Amino acid sequence: MLALSCVLCQGENWVTVDQERFYLNGSEYHYIGTNYWYGVNMGAPLSGDRDRVRKELDQLISLGVTNLRIMAGGQGPDDREKRIVPSIEPEPMEFNEDVWLGFDFLLNEMRNRGMKAIVPINNYWEWSGGFGQYVEWHGGDFEDPLSFYEMIDVQEHFRAFTEYLLNRENTLNGVLYKEDSTIMAWQLSNEPRIENCTLYQEWISSTVDFIKDIAPHHLVSLGNEGTITNCAREGNEVESLDYVTFHCWAQNWGWFDPKDPSSLDSALVHVREYLDKNVEIANDLHKPAVLEEFGISRDDASYSPDALTTLRDKYYRFVFEYVVDHVKNRSSNIVATNFWAYGGMGRPVSEGGLWRPGDDFIGDPPHEPQGWYSVYDKDSTLSIVKSYNNLLRHITHGISNKMISRSE
């Protein structure tokens, strides 16, 4: 009764947090979503492909996928390799309006379909410019992204970009981004890293406050990888963060070798331990938790879209089962997950090679082998996504009915 009425008083369509759960329109909000980081660029009228965006969003809706983690453009210059181009900010506080129009388009199309977005504002990694580009623009070394936290000019620039982003008015519907309930949460960065936990907490706290002063209805999360990195617990301990995030990369971290299919079983033991460890932090902090990145390659480490996904499908089932089981049994605070990543109708031009301007955007960022982790619109994996989304929706519906019965 308390949770239901608390959510309703905050208005419809906003995702809120109460009693260690997400709520949307009076019901608990759980999801199996995806990462669709390239959506902003694909929505650009001149450099993108809006027809593809519409079709891919419809594909995702048919799978029950309504939550997308998208990148807020990126930083230039646009002649860098391993970089999203065109960037939304080719030079400091000089913007590419075509990409901003792509952002408007993506949010409006998601809004029309009742979808929700999680938006990382920055990136620790080079593929969207991110920390290193901010540092370089202000006289530092691109190869030293950790300077990002300490350089005053960098922090002023980052806040100026963030303020511009939050105050952007969507040209298609007139809604300010800071007032758009399509956006579930702003995220401070994709996979931020640091060594000084005290400095980390200070930066997180002040940045969250800055965002919430401008966009008080939106949730804010960190976007970190979890306990595989330093200061993971300390970062999520910042009280003003609304929920805990973590990522799981069994193959990248050496637990799984796609050339040795038998290694998957032992990898799943490590994965379960890792999930348990990070969920325990969320439980201790009394916050919801989201596993917002996970994936493995196609069979035999192939980069070909035609290769089988037998092992990947088994892995996805394992992770989805973990999340759905915990939601059903109320056994922890994990409430949702986003797989990495939807490649949709795109296909790699150079299988296993680097992305080049003009190539299809797929799920693999420009700095990674193309075709590595992408889930395409024809993959068998999608039937598993759909099946578990249906199961999760059924469980959530049952939870909502119990809440209504108690309130009457």
UniProtKB/TrEMBL annotation:
Keyword Hydrolase assigned: yes
Q: What is this protein called?
A: mannan endo-1,4-beta-mannosidase
Q: Does the keyword S-adenosyl-L-methionine apply?
A: no
**Catalysed reaction per UniProt?**
Random hydrolysis of (1->4)-beta-D-mannosidic linkages in mannans, galactomannans and glucomannans
Sorted keywords for this record are:
Glycosidase, Hydrolase
Q: Which residues cross the membrane?
A: none
Write down the species: Euplotes crassus
For the protein in the UniProt heading, the enzyme class is hydrolase
Family per record: Belongs to the glycosyl hydrolase 5 (cellulase A) family.
What GO molecular function annotations does the UniProt record carry, in alphabetical order?
A: mannan endo-1,4-beta-mannosidase activity
Glycoside hydrolase family domain ranges (all copies): 13-395
PANTHER family, alphabetized: GLYCOSIDE HYDROLASE FAMILY 5 DOMAIN-CONTAINING PROTEIN (PTHR31451:SF40), PTHR31451
EC id: 3.2.1.78
